[in-house]
Amino acid sequence: MKNRNLNKLIFIIMAILIVFFSFLINNSFFSMLEKKEVSNLHQVNEFKAKADVSRDSEIKDEQQLKIVKENNVLDIAKIEPKAAQENTIYVSQFGVRGDGKTDDAPAIRKAIQYARDNKISKIVFDAKTYLLSSTVNGIYLPLYSNLTFIGKGEKTVLLQAGGKLENGDPKIFFSEDYVENIGFSNLTIDLNGTANLCPQVIKRANIAIGAKRARNVNISKIIFKNNAGRQTIMLGSSLKNKGVFDVVVSNCKFINVGNGVKGNNIQTDHSCIYVVAERFTCNNNTFYNPPISNQLPVSTAIESHSDFARVEGNTISNFKNAFNIVATVSSHVNSSYRNNTCNNVMRLAEFWVWNNNTMDNIIIENNKLTQIIPTEAFSLTKQVKTPINNLVISQNYIEYVGSRSSKYSFPSIISASIKNLTIENNVFKNLPSGVLLSTSKVGETPKITITGNKVIDCGNTNANNSITYHTAFLLNGTDGGELLIDGNTIQNSSDKGFIERGVILDNNWRRKNLGSNVYDKVSSKILDNRK
C-alpha cells in the first residue's frame, strides 16, 4: 500500500516538473521570437528614417535651388558639388527656361558672371532653345577670359528675338575689353534673320561671336544661321597694330547669311568670318547660302586681315567671294589658302591693299572653283592701291559652268600692282574670257611667271568687242621686269569660238622667256608688239 502511494507521489512530482520545464522552454522561445521581431522592426524603422532623411535632403536641395533662383543667391557648389569640382556649371542652375519663349539672357548672364567670379571655366547648355531678347549695352552675353561655352549639339539653340536690328547692332557673345582663352563648341546660334530684316538702314551689324582684342580663341562645331546683318564672327578692329592673336575656327557651319536670308535685300555687306589677327586658322568649315535667282550674291565667306593665316579644307556654296584677302588697316603676310572647294561662287579671292600696308607671301593653292556668273576668279585691281609683294596662284581648278556668254566678261586673273606674280600648274576651263590681263603701272617692273597651266576651251563667249575675250595671256601697261611663259597648254575643242590668241605682249620687258608652250587649235600663238 505504501509502495503504491509512493509511486503516485513520484508520478505527480515528475508531472509537475515536466509542466514546469515545458513552461520555461516555451517562455524562452517566445521571448526570442519577440526579440527577433523587435530587432526586425527596429531595422525597418531605421531604414525608413534614413529614407526620410534622404527625402528631406532632396526637398531641402530643391528648396535651396528655389531660393537661388528666386533670390539670385549664387551658391551652386552646395547644390552641385561634383560639377563645381569638375570646374563646370550649367545654365539650368540659374533659372533658364529653355522654352524658346522666355527671355533667358538675364539668367545666362548670371551664370557667366558667377563663372567669372568663381574661376569656373566651363558653362554648359542643355539641348534646349534659349531665347535671347534683352541686352546690356547692345550685348546679350558678355565674354570674359578663361571661359568655354559648351552645348549638346544641333539641338542646343541660342535664338535671337525678332526686331533687334531696327534700333542697333546687337551682339550675341562679345567683349569690348581684352579677353583670352575663350572657347565655343557644339552650339547653334540662330540670328533669326527673317524676323530681323532692317529695310531702312544699310550695313547693320549682327555679330554672333566677337571681341576687339583677344588671345587664344577657339570656335569649333558651331552652327551659325540666318544672319541678316553684317559679320557673324568678328575678331579684331581697325587698329594698325593687331590686337587679336591665335584664332582657330574649325568644323563650323554658316547657313543663310546676307541676302541668303529671304527678303534681305538691303544689307549688302556680309562676311561670315572677319578676322584681324596674328595667327589665324580656319579649316573644315561649311558655308552655304541657297541659290538666288534674279539677284547677285553679296556675301563673303572668309575675310582675313591676318598674318600667318591658314585657310584650308573649307566648302563654300553660292557666295560672292570665297575669300577677301585684305591689308587695309594692317599687314597681311605669310598666309595660305589651300584645298578649299567653292561651288557657284563668283570669285575665289578679292584683294584689298591700302595705305602702304604690306601684303606679302600669299599662296592660293589647290582650290576648286566653279562659277556660274561670268566674272574674274581673282580680283587684283580695283582695291589694290599699294603693290602686293609676292603672290602665288598654284594648282587650282577654275571652271565656268554657266551658259555660254554673249556679254562682257573679265579675264580670270586681273593684275595691276604686283611685284612678283606666279601662276603655275592651274587648270582654267570654259572661261568666258581669257586667263590673265596684266596692266603694270608707271614705276613698277613686275616679275611674272606663267608655267605649266592648262587653258581648255576658254574664250567661251559670243562677244568679240574686246581683245581680252579671246586671248589667253594679255600683258600690257608700262614696262615690266622679268617675264617667263613656259610649259603651258592652250587647247580648244574647235577652231572657232574659243581662244584665238595665245599670248599678246603690248609692253617692254627687261628679260622675257616665252619658252615652249602647246597651242591646240589656236590661230595665233604669240603676238609680241614690242619686238
TrEMBL record:
UniProt-listed Gene3D superfamilies: Single-stranded right-handed beta-helix, Pectin lyase-like
Keywords of this entry: Membrane, Transmembrane, Transmembrane helix
Domain Rhamnogalacturonase A/B/Epimerase-like pectate lyase residues, every copy: 91-320
SUPFAM superfamilies the record matches: Pectin lyase-like (SSF51126)
InterPro entries: PbH1 (IPR006626), Pectin_lyas_fold (IPR012334), Pectin_lyase_fold/virulence (IPR011050), RHGA/B-epi-like_pectate_lyase (IPR024535)
Transmembrane regions: 9-30
Full protein name: Rhamnogalacturonase A/B/Epimerase-like pectate lyase domain-containing protein
